[in-house]
Amino acid sequence: MEAEKNQGLIANKKSQFWAENQKLLMKIRAEERQLAVKRFWRNRLAVGGLVLLFVIMMLALLAPVLVPFGPYEMDIAQRLIAPNSIHIWGTDTFGRDVFIRVAYGARVSLMIGIAVSMLSCILGMMIGLYASYYKILDNILMRLCDGISAIPSMLLAIAFMAILGASATNVIVSLSLVFTPSVARITRSRALAIQELTYIEAMKSLGASSTRIIWLHIAPNLLSPVIVQTSFIFAKAIITEAALSFLGVGVPVPVPSLGNILYEAKTVITKGWWLVLCPGIVTALYVLGLNMLGDGLRDALDPRAKY
Amino acid sequence: MMNHLLDVQGIKKYFSVTDFFGREIYSIKAVDDVSFYMDQGEIYGLVGESGCGKSTLGRCILNLIPATDGKVILQGKDFFSLKEGDIKKLRQDIQMIFQDPYLALNPKKRVGNILMEVLIIKGVADEKERYFTALDILEKVGLRPEHFYRFPHEFSGGQRQRIGIARALLMEPKLIICDEPVSALDVSIQAQILNLLLDAKRKMNMSYLFVTHNMSIVRHVSDRIGVMYLGHLIEEAATDDLFRTPQHPYTQALLSAAAVPNPHIKKDRIPLTGELPSPMNIPAGCVFSGRCPYVRDDCKKYRPTLLAKEQTLSHRVACFYA
Amino acid sequence: MIRLNEKNLLEVDRLSVAFKTERGYLKAVDDMRFCVNTQEVLGVVGESGCGKSVTMQAIMRLFDERSGLTQYKGQVKMHGCNLMDIPFQAYDKIRGKQIAMVFQDALSALDPLFPIGQQLDEALRIHTDLDKAARQERILQLLKLVGINSPEDRVNQYPHEFSGGMRQRIMIAIALSCEPEILIADEPTTALDVTIQAQILDLLVSLKKRCDMSIIFITHDLSVVAQVCQRVIVMYLGQVVETTDVCTLFDQPLHPYTQGLLQSVPSLSGARQEKLFVIPGTVPLLNQIPEGCRFAPRCLYATSLCKETMPELEQIADGHYVRCWRCKKERSQS
Predict the structure, then answer these.
(1) Residue A145 half-sphere exposure, CB side, CA atoms within 13 Å?
(2) Does residue C202 belong to the interface with chain B, where contact is any CB pair within 8 Å?
(3) Fewer CB in 10 Å around end: N or C, chain B?
(4) What is the pTM of this model?
(5) pLDDT averaged over consecutive 10-residue blocks of chain C (334 residues)?
(6) Hey, is the C-beta of A35 within 8 angstroms of any chain B C-beta?
(7) What is the ipTM, given to two decimal places?
């Protein structure tokens, strides 16, 4: 009886201790998050990038509220009018409001950018990690990546789009294929270096499975360069998509994208400078903001630099 | 003939350097035909200078590096020829502590999680049980509960080494291979770590294969000592025997060169001519023939094997004239 | 002021070095006092972070105080004149010529792109007026002096073609090239094997006589100190805590830190597998230096006096200086 009561008391105390420590862990994690955020705010470049992106995204989201026109509404009587008080950024060859089209185009570019960077990040990491861990896979996978990256990205993208046909989804697929090798290469080289380190050896000596070692030990330690590369890919995806659409093989009209507004404006550049300048500036600012943000994220994510 | 805890038979590790077409240009014989055994509760010191292959040998025993040839028999089972599942089980019985405390821990994981992960691999299902076991071992190695959720970079070298030891102890192995565990640490921290290891030995009947190049530490810690030179085990004896009557000329030179913390003892050093030959250029015949002060003609032609010379079977030497 | 005899080659008097950090100046070295005689090997012992390397780098003026990031106080007198008075720009004349330094890792201390002959030549070109032929001859002489055989063949080889011990010898040769009066050796044998370490130590001791110079030998290895040094200073957290000749240090260490260090080292004689003595606690961070005696938090004999007031480095016995209230009390009692 006595022993049982003691056991009960000990178990109680243990549960209490356990609960307290879980709370402690939450507190520590919250503190670290706060520190990371503080560090992030100190990086003016990153904050600038974030602000820029925020502005553009607000533009994209709030545009329908600010402007009474839809992106597909044509008003032939009002075509090719320079920026004025009704159409802030003027109208295009079909009389559609440029501002709202650019705003929708920004949304499309955002969507494509996110999808491409996520896909190439995940795919690239998988390829890089497994190639670095299993020597047999290394040759096959890396030669494949070399082949893809040997062809200039624009040409390759165009070729893919020609095979797949023009649509936003196909743009995402082809751009992901084009950008995956760069992520794979970085991942692989970092992973190779990390595998030489002692703690990986220690995990092997403990009998950890390969999957555990690859995803729980190697991968977290190479996230920093991958994240930076992903933000660059995001920016490149936006530009490449704009270029593809500009050439007519990207997002098909009439769905607006930052590139196909330029595509439609090709013939009337001299008569409508606003058709080039507005989407151009938005694209440039998008890319600038993303690059600035990428640098900031990399600094904030490293738990080693704590002050 | 009872089962030894660890029976290393004829381990060889050759690294081959190939040309562009895959043909071998030369091979680096990092470890060449090393055999010895260890029993439960024993500390075996492995000494030698850089390039002698002691670290490589340790890793070959654990199969972290695949050995070119040879067998490792752990508690009666042939380690290298086991199937995947059995290897994993046996791996838990033999652990390793590494030299560099700064790289031995994953910098992105909290200390507590590193320790709890060991228990996940071991198969402890209950999260709370893992937590309490990990906390317990953390205190046993001299750290405090508030260290549980910190990252490795917040600790000093000595503390990190302790975490590495805790990780190895958590597996409850029969044998721990210590690869120069204290070389990177300050003198007073070395003492703490050595005390910790000896304590674990007394309490858990732990066995160690202690690899080092420091003679005073190996003497303090080991029951038996093996001396390696250029990939070969050239002498093996009980500690007191080795230090009192070293028989191989290299061991004698090594002991005479080792500095003693006593200014009144001015040693007569046995001078060793020349430098350590590069492992790509190992002399034919006895590996020590290039620098041995007593070298004779057949030393350069034939390689001596490790044999017990005297009545005591425990003292083995690889020399024709010892 | 420590004065052993009038032949003091180098006197360091109340040297302190402070580095600028976000929270103000942090003193890495405080109130350093020691001196070196002619043809003497002085050992500087301490654990990592005690400031031994920083002291030597300060003597070599490797930190530029003009940037404001480093602050020096105190005097370093050589032949009576204070080296700290010499401006940074003019210190090149001292470095390499009167005081030379040998580092721990020879591979990174030698430039991998140049053959060793050229690296030796460079030192000679800066400090001497010898013409090319004379320099070549001197280079071969130096290589022979440090024990490198057939120097004519090896003079055009690159650092990576030499082994660790050889590279260390080359570094010593470069340091010796302009005949310095003081050679500072910063852990020169820590990275070397036992037998090579023995060779290098023998070399240094023989060079001391042949080149008529003194050596300041920094190390954390007490066995090496016992073998090579005549006098020793023990450092803790940027200060000298004890200094005396080597035999007295090992036979009668007075400062509790020195005693603790000596007891932590396993000896080559004596009982095996015994529990080693451990100095309790850990070395505090430089921005958390305790008030009073810096060793007090870890000292077994600490009193309230120790925790409040910093003891001075005082002479307890002939040539034996200790920074400790307890030792001072015991001396005044006897």
Answers:
(1) 25
(2) yes
(3) N
(4) 0.80
(5) 61 88 82 88 88 87 81 85 84 83 82 88 84 90 86 86 85 87 88 83 88 90 89 92 91 91 82 82 78 87 87 85 87 78
(6) no
(7) 0.80
